[in-house]
Design brief:
Blueprint (H helix, E strand, L loop, with lengths): L6 H18 L9 H12 L9 E5 L7 H22 L5 E8 L2 E9 L6 E2 L2 E2 L12 H11 L3 E6 L3 E9 L6
Parallel strand pairs: 1-2
Antiparallel strand pairs: 2-3, 3-7, 4-5, 6-7
Helix pairs in contact: 2-3, 3-4
Amino acid sequence: MAKTGGNEEILSYLKQMENIAGTALCHHLYTENRNMNNLLNYILEDSKSVIENPEISVEIPNHIGEELFDISIIVGNLMDNAIRGTAASDERRLSFQMYYGKGIMNIQIENSIKDTPKVRNGIYLTTKSRKEGHGIGLQNVKLVVEKYHGQMEICHTEKSFQVKILLYMKLDEK
């Protein structure tokens, strides 16, 4: 459709996809932002068998403009890592908070882990058995944080892994 200049067809298609996703995925309402609800529901759907009660708290504007793609990279990668770490642990604890106010997006995620993470040259190594093509999630998150001149802090203990992120952004309010 894009190659043939079918802009109206593309918009219609995307609207249909949005309607399907909006009704199909929103099992839990974590925030008034429908796109973030869909993302969180999609990510958490497969983790229900290993994480019964994740602590999720999200307070962000109803509309997020072009920044949504970048925020999705952060949330998707961090949640994927956290779910995997939590599933392997005995505690099975996951906490995710995301707040926006006064031009600052604050994202924090903490999860239980089985073993102390391995770090080489300041880079956290993947825990996946197949190393090829993996272990780049936190690097992608770091790139987005740098794009917004933000800050990222990673802390861990023997049984817990935590990432705190501050992004400096003025979200497009519509």
